[in-house]
Amino acid sequence: MQLPPEGARWLIRLRWFAFVHVLVTIWLASSVLGVIARPLPLYLVALAIGGYNLLLELYQRWPHPVNGRMGRSISLQILLDLSALTLLLYFSDLPRNPFLVYYLFHIIIAGMYLRGTAPYFFAGLATVMVGGVMVLEYGGWIPSVPLRYPSSPAARPADGVYLLGVFAAMASAIWITVYFTTSIRRYVDRAHAEIRQKEKMLGIGQLVAGIAHQIANPLDGVQNCLQRIGERVKDDARLTEYVRMMAEALSRIERTAKRVQAFAQPRGIKLESTDVNAAVESTLAVLGSAHGPRIKIETELRDVPPVQGDPYTLQEVLFNLCTNALAAMPNGGRLTLRTLALGSKDEDQMGSVAIEVADTGIGIPRVNLEKIFEPFFTTRADSGGTGLGLGLCRMLISEMGGRIEVRSALGQGTTFTVVLNPVARREVVRAS
Asked: Is 3.30.565.10 the CATH number for 272-431?
């Protein structure tokens, strides 16, 4: 899920509020409360915030390519804000300043809007900034600027143990924040992708159902007419053969239309306790030996708990994945089906079970990995591929509460992983 570019503009608008808030806070702390003895450096930093925010707003209004613009703008804003926040806190007794927690705000923004390792980079940068100021002040390399609280008017150097405790608390808070924010963002991205996939599949289902219906009605009339023509030309062997070939072609069209209609109909999935090992074995039995002698099929079925799923739908998905794997090995290879319990390795669902369908085929280019679940995307159009199989598989597994993951390398093969949730313990006891 790509967040809209309004995010960068929203951050600029929010910074104007922060700019006013900083000015008011400095004035209250220095003129009213008398906590800050030298407010001038703080006012200069606040004016710098207003200045670069004005430049950022002008940059947002300037017409230029959108590709990558929002990510660069957010990164630049976070970098400037972290620098400004560090200066503000340094000139107002960073170790004892209650506004130290404002670092977390920028880490949350980085986790929401930035991809890859960028949020962790800014978490590391914030940690270094906080720790750096504390070390430099404690070592006497930079002058300390203490606050003058009424309860302790005499400013004393910060104790080393106190600094270590504050740094440990702040650093752990920063890294916990970036971890949870990025984890939630990954979950939202995956959920959004599944919703988009379902919407596409539902739209395609309605479309193909209408097309199949329009084909089926006149097809019956054509078949009836052809049957009567066949009765009139019984004495002509050549024409009879032509009629037979036409009837077979129409029959294939009819079967295709029925398959399309069946695809378009909503599938009722009944969730129950499902043995994934039994599903794998049933799939291999249906697959048979039509794969040829140059392909070796292996299984690695471990002792795994039952999952929530529909056994027949799961077999359909595994069959589709296996046929795709066989098609990816035209010169032979090895197809491996394995089951394993992920346990605590799965961040989304503890105790989940995985079914891997791995081949040693030609692999999938990296540029296509994000497209293979898109409806009608196929690299096997010349051999009859429609591009609907993987999209349907993903939708069916999603309806069972699971997910499909893929990893591939060109020339080394592809592995599809179906991850399903375990059956609740009370359901297992009830079933036994």
From this structure: yes
Pair of tokens at residue 350: 């503890």
* 8 A C-beta contact, residue 253 and residue 219: yes
Ramachandran quadrant class, 350 (left: phi over 0; alpha: psi -120 to 50; beta: rest) = beta
Of 312, 344, 306, residue with least CA distance to 427: 306
What's the residue count for the chain? 432
Give the residue from 315, 304, 309 showing the smallest Cα distance to 272: 309
Cβ atoms within 10 A of the Cβ of 308, count? 18
As a whole number, mean pLDDT of residues 154-178 equals 82
Confirm if 373 and 391 have CB atoms less than 8 A apart.
yes
Amino acid found at 22: V
| 67 vs 215, higher pLDDT | 215
**What is the C-alpha separation between 428 and 390, in angstroms, rounded?**
31
Q: Is the pTM of this model over 0.70?
A: no
Cα 299 to Cα 313: distance, rounded to the nearest angstrom? 20
Collapsed DSSP state (helix, strand, coil) of residue 412: coil
Identify the three-state secondary structure at position 138.
Answer: helix
Q: Which of 31-45, 191-205, 408-422 has the lowest mean pLDDT?
A: 191-205
Pairing type for strands 307-309 and 352-359 reads unpaired
In contact, 243 and 230? CB cutoff 8 Å? yes
C-alpha–C-alpha distance, residues 318 and 324, integer Å: 10
Cα–Cα distance, 55 to 120 (Å, whole number): 27
Structure tokens at 372: 């293979």
How far is residue 66's CA from residue 188's CA, in Å, rounded to a whole number?
23
- Residue 382 pLDDT > 60, yes or no? no
Is residue 36 within 8 Å of residue 42, measured between CB atoms? Answer: yes
DSSP state letters, 9-49 = HHHHHHHHHHHHHHHHHHHIIIIIS---S--HHHHHHHHHH
Q: Give the SS3 label for residue 370.
A: coil
